[in-house]
Write a sequence for this structure.
């Protein structure tokens, strides 16, 4: 159950009513996916920080990566507000490789980018200093194909799964969509290219899994992470059904406490931060 503002007493009353009826539905995941206009290949950092009282935005463009795994990435700051210490660090593990084939990727038509074929790699995130966690991820998702899959976790809890079908349902298949083809050179006109955003409005995530289920490639660039207080989604929303594993039918007061634990802990941390 997501409660948007309002009096917490009303939320408790609603939960009590559901408990008395013996059934309550709890939604653990709270990630909202959006996309930027066609041709955009980098995060809109001012838009991310605009609605916040504090933010830190960092980006990895893979241009200094030597191509080996694991790879420790320091997400270099591109925007911040009200944050005086700390940063966001990431470790890439698994079958991540680099490419400079500008048909399928390379933001701006230059440099290297990350890819994986018929396998998986994982980005594990940590924060330091004033930053209690990561609640935003963005990337230039290039040459989308049916085998691309992106999953967000809090520790070992799956919060959200993204597949290209969700995006195509809004912008349309190729040809015909403004998102079709590489905006840098016009190549690969049969696939979509877009900068996508993922906002966790109910807490933080610390692991992202990139999977290509076919022999094609999952190409992406300009991986962007952020702490936003509060996390306010910007861009055009990509509607999606919640992760099946994230919806549980629970009974009794103890189950409600478990279901709401993630939100209450994160809200408490946000109040204590910045």
């Amino acid at each position: 159950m997501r409660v948007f503002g309002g009096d917490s007493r009303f939320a408790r009353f609603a939960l009590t009513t559901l408990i008395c009826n013996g059934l309550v539905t709890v939604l653990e995941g709270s990630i909202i996916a959006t996309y930027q206009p066609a041709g955009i290949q980098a995060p809109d950092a001012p838009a991310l920080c605009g609605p916040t009282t504090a933010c830190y935005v960092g980006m990895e463009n893979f241009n200094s990566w030597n191509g080996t795994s694991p790879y420790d990435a320091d997400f270099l700051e591109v925007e911040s507000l009200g944050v005086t210490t700390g940063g966001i660090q990431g470790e890439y593990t698994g079958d991540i490789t680099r490419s400079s084939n500008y048909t399928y990727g390379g933001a701006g038509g230059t440099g290297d980018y990350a890819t994986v074929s018929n396998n998986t790699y994982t980005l594990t995130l940590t924060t330091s200093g004033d930053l209690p966690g990561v609640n935003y991820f963005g990337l230039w998702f290039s040459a989308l194909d049916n085998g691309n899959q992106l999953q967000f976790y809090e520790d070992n809890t799956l919060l959200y799964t993204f597949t290209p079908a969700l995006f195509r349902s809004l912008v349309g298949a190729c040809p015909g969509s403004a998102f079709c083809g590489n905006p840098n050179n016009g190549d690969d006109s049969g696939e979509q290219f877009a900068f996508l955003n993922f906002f966790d409005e109910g807490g933080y995530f610390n692991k992202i899994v990139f999977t290509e289920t076919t022999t094609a490639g999952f190409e992406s660039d300009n991986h962007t992470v952020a702490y936003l207080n509060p996390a306010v989604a910007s861009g055009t929303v990509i509607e999606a059904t919640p992760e099946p594993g994230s919806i549980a039918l629970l009974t009794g007061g103890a189950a409600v406490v478990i279901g709401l634990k993630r939100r209450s802990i994160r809200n408490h941390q946000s109040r204590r931060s910045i």
